Amino acid sequence: MSEPFFDQYALPDNAPREKTQRIKVLSLSGGGYRGLFTAAVIKSLEAQLSTPHSPPTPFGNHFDLIVGTSIGGILATALSAGVTGADLKAVLEDRGITIFPEIRLRSLRKLVGQPPYKPKHLRTAIKKLIPDADKRLLSQHQSALLLTAVNWTTSKLHLLGSYPTCERDNLGMTLMDAMLATSAAPAHFPVHAFEHHLFVDGGLAANAPDLHALLCAQKMHPNAEIQMLSIGTANPLHGRDPSAVPGRGVMWAGPVIELVMSAQEMLAVQECEAKMGPHRYLRLNVPPSSIQEKQMDFDIANKVSTNLLLSLADDCIRSLQQDKGKWQRLMTIIR
Predict the structure, then answer these.
(1) What one-character DSSP code corresponds to residue 137?
(2) How far apart are CA 249 and CA 5, in angstroms?
(3) Sign of the CA dihedral with 111 first, then 116, 120, and 121 last
(4) Which residues pair with 147 in a beta bridge?
(5) Cα–Cα distance measured from residue 79 to residue 129, given in angstroms and rounded to the nearest whole number
(6) What 3-state class would DSSP assign to 143?
(7) In the predicted model, what is the mean pLDDT of the chain?
């Protein structure tokens, strides 16, 4: 029998190892006014992570990279600029009805004619969060931020990154431009034109931008351990009624957009769970019931939808606190 191999250069088992760099990533999904759920969850977590009787530490300060799509992109940009979760929630509650006013024949108007909602109201809400958003260049933004958009002309997913990322914007976009580009939801808002480019909502290709967040973090920090907190928008991810398949071409318009976004979101979450494992990846989302879902569409911003979204956010936090293992995983990622 041969002698066991002896490696003279191997470190002893009890020798101290070089500490692996830990990179914390926050990824926020799209979902229109349902982003109020995201903001409310962030506000609650922010309060619990802050010192009692002191101003809360902005939630974005806990992360090395923040990534978002659509409303998640707007929230991500604000968080990267130091806006608190409390302010995010307050602005969405206050401005939601202005951004998404109640209109007659809402579904029909989204199928035909001009987009029913005005970007100017969204601009006003953004300026409430970041007053100089239309002057600050994304390429010079010092926090690591990544937003998704789809370029209508090229049909490609377009990643809009700040200065520290590998996807640094080279078009000269302001933070305002980037936020309007990522949230230009088809059938709701007009496309966002910048120079000779036309952008639509990043949710068409990456409603949950988790995989792109992971790849960006790996490019920025090749040898680091990546940990990610992903937050949804209380969006329904259950199957659909087989008897409700649209029978006519025009009737497919709305459902097919929702179907594409949901399918991509579920795939992104499943892939990140498989690649990262439960100790490095945590997804927070509370899907509504089928009855609640009808009151919580992308562009419904009334009192009923507001109360439902805030209630689901409370349920999300409560279930986290009751599950000690999950809460510990969350604290490991954030702290």
Answers:
(1) B
(2) 70
(3) negative
(4) 68, 160
(5) 9
(6) coil
(7) 89
